[in-house]
Design a protein that fits this description.
- By secondary structure, the chain is an alpha/beta fold.
- Helices cover about 35% and strands about 30% of the residues.
- It has 12 helices and 21 strands.
- The protein has helices at about 55-70, 110-120, 165-180, 190-200, 200-205, 240-250, 255-265, 290-315, 340-345, 365, 370-390, 410-420; strands at about 5-10, 15-25, 30-40, 45, 50, 80-85, 90-100, 125-140, 140-145, 155-165, 185-190, 210-215, 220-225, 225-235, 275-280, 290, 325-330, 350-355, 400, 405, 410.
- The strands form 6 sheets. A 5-stranded mixed sheet has the order 3-2-1-6-11, with helices on both faces. Strands 7, 8, 9, 10 and 21 form a 5-stranded mixed sheet that branches.
- A hairpin with a 2-residue loop joins strand 8 (about 125-140) and strand 9.
- Helix 4 packs across helix 11 and helix 8 packs across helix 9.
C-alpha cells in the first residue's frame, strides 16, 4: 500500500473538486495518509447531484483530473466518487440467520451472511445498494451488541441502514467517470464522505449531526454510539440564497453572487443603517444603494429554511436538541459569515465549522470546507484499503458487474474483521 495514491472526486453542481492523498509508512511502521494535491474546476453538465449533459460533465471532470495530475506529477488511476441527490434513499433493514456450527460460535462468515440477509430484505426494484451499515446486532435474546464475533448463540440478527440509489442515476455517473479514462474504486454516499472528513470518533460516539451545505443540495448525516443513525439530502443549497438576492434586488445572478461572497452576512444585526452597498459597483446597470441589513435578512430567511429541514429530520428520529457533540457545518455554503449563529438559533445545539485534521502540503486549499467531501472520500478510501490490506482480503469490496456499480460492507464490520485477525 506504500506510495499508493488515493483520489476523491466530488461532482458538485457549481464545481468539480478533487483531493489526492498519498500513503506512506510512518515511524511506527504504520500506514499514514498525507494530502498532496487538490484541484477545482467549474462544473458543467451536473445539476442537483445528477448528470444533465454527459459530454459537458466529462469535459469538466477531465479538466479537473488534468489539473490534479499536473499538481501531483503522477497519473491518477482510479477515484472514489461521491454520489448524492434525491435519487438516494436511506432505510432501515433487518437480517436474521441461524448459526449453523456445532460449537455455536459466531464467525466472520456469519456476520457477512446476516448483512447479506439485510441487503436482500431492503433491495428495491430499479435501485442499487451502495452501503449496508450495521447499527446493532442481536445474539439470541441479547440486544444492542456492537461486535458479535466470538459470542455463542443459535440466532444472529442485525439492524442496519441500507443506502441505495436509483440504478439509472448511478449508471449515468459511472458512465461519465469511465469516459474520462479513470476507474472507479467505489461510489460513496456524499453525506458519509463529508462526515468522514470533519468528525472524529468521539464526536460520533457522543452524537453529532453533520450538515454539508453545497450549491444545489444540502446533505446531513447523524451519528450516535459510533454508528450512522440517519441521513438525508435536501434539494436546496447556497445557490438558492443567490437566487433570492437576485430576485429581491431585481438584479442579475452574477451581481447577486458577487454581493453574497463579498458583503453577505447571515445576521442582519451585524450591520447598521448606514451600511449600504452600491449595486453598480458590482456590475449592475443601475446605480442603487441597498442596505446590507436588508440583504442579510434575505440570507437569514433562506438559511433558516435549510436548518428547519434539518430540524424536521432530527425530530423524526427523536434527536432534536439531544446531540451532545452538536452540529458540524461544512461545504461551500458554510463559509458564509454568521451561518453558525443561525444554526444554533434554529437547531438549539452547539454548532461549528468543520474542516479536516489531515496533514497536507497545501493546507490553504484542503482546509476549505468546500473540499470536505473530496477529502472525506480520500479518508474513506484509505480506511477501506488499509482494512483490506490488514485482513488479507477477508473483506471483499464487491463489484456489481452488470451495472458497473460498486458496493461495500460497512466500516464497522471491517473493524470487526481486523480486530479478530491473529
Amino acid at each position: 500500500m506504500k506510495g499508493r495514491l488515493i483520489t476523491g472526486l466530488d461532482l458538485g453542481s457549481s464545481a468539480i473538486r478533487i483531493a489526492v492523498g498519498q500513503v506512506s509508512m510512518g515511524p511506527d511502521h504504520q500506514a499514514q495518509l498525507t494530502l498532496i494535491g487538490a484541484a477545482e474546476t467549474k462544473s458543467e453538465g451536473i445539476a442537483k447531484a445528477s448528470i444533465t449533459s454527459l459530454e459537458d460533465a466529462v469535459s469538466s471532470i477531465s479538466a479537473c483530473l488534468d489539473q490534479a495530475e499536473r499538481m501531483v506529477g503522477l497519473p491518477l488511476q482510479d477515484v472514489y466518487v461521491a454520489v448524492g441527490g434525491s435519487q438516494i434513499t436511506v432505510q432501515e433493514a433487518k437480517g436474521i440467520i441461524g448459526v449453523s456450527r456445532g460449537d455455536q460460535d459466531v464467525k466472520r462468515e456469519d456476520v457477512a451472511r446476516v448483512l447479506e440477509a439485510a441487503r436482500t430484505f431492503a433491495q428495491t426494484p430499479n435501485y442499487e445498494i451502495l452501503h449496508v451499515l450495521p447499527v446493532s446486532f442481536t445474539v439470541d435474546s441479547q440486544k444492542d451488541i456492537k461486535d458479535p464475533i466470538g459470542m455463542q448463540g443459535i440466532r444472529l440478527e442485525v439492524t442496519a441502514k441500507v443506502i441505495q440509489g436509483l440504478s439509472n442515476h448511478l449508471k449515468n455517473i459511472t458512465k461519465t467517470v469511465f469516459r474520462t479514462n479513470v476507474d472507479i474504486a467505489e461510489l460513496v454516499y456524499a453525506p458519509l464522505a463529508a462526515a468522514e472528513a470533519v468528525t472524529n470518533k468521539r464526536q460520533k460516539e457522543l452524537g453529532v449531526c453533520v450538515v454539508n451545505m453545497g450549491a444545489a443540495t444540502t446533505g446531513m448525516s447523524v451519528y450516535e454510539n459510533g454508528e450512522l443513525v440517519h441521513a438525508a439530502t435536501f434539494l436546496i443549497g447556497a445557490d438558492h440564497i443567490t437566487s433570492d438576492i437576485a430576485i429581491t434586488l431585481r438584479t442579475s445572478i452574477e451581481v447577486a453572487e458577487k454581493i453574497k461572497r463579498t458583503k453577505g452576512h447571515a445576521l442582519p444585526s451585524f450591520f447598521g443603517k448606514q451600511d449600504t452597498v452600491d449595486l453598480k459597483e458590482y456590475g449592475s446597470d443601475l446605480q442603487e444603494a441597498v442596505q446590507l441589513s436588508f440583504i442579510s435578512e434575505v440570507i437569514e430567511a433562506r438559511l433558516e429554511e435549510i436548518f428547519e429541514k434539518v430540524e424536521d429530520e432530527l425530530k423524526k428520529i427523536d434527536r432534536s436538541g439531544l446531540l451532545p457533540a452538536g452540529v458540524v457545518l461544512t461545504g461551500g455554503g458554510s463559509k458564509l459569515p454568521g451561518v453558525v449563529e443561525v444554526a444554533k438559533q434554529v437547531l438549539h445545539l452547539p454548532a461549528s465549522i468543520g474542516v479536516t485534521s489531515l496533514e497536507s502540503s497545501m493546507p490553504e486549499m484542503i482546509k476549505d470546507p468546500a473540499f470536505s467531501t473530496a477529502v472525506g472520500l480520500v479518508e474513506w478510501g484509505f480506511e477501506a484499503e488499509r482494512q483490506v490490506d490488514q485482513t488479507g482480503g477477508l473483506y471483499n469490496r464487491s463489484l456489481k458487474q452488470a451495472s458497473g456499480v460498486f458496493t461495500k460492507l460497512s466500516d464497522p464490520i471491517k473493524k470487526i474483521f481486523k480486530s479478530f485477525m491473529p
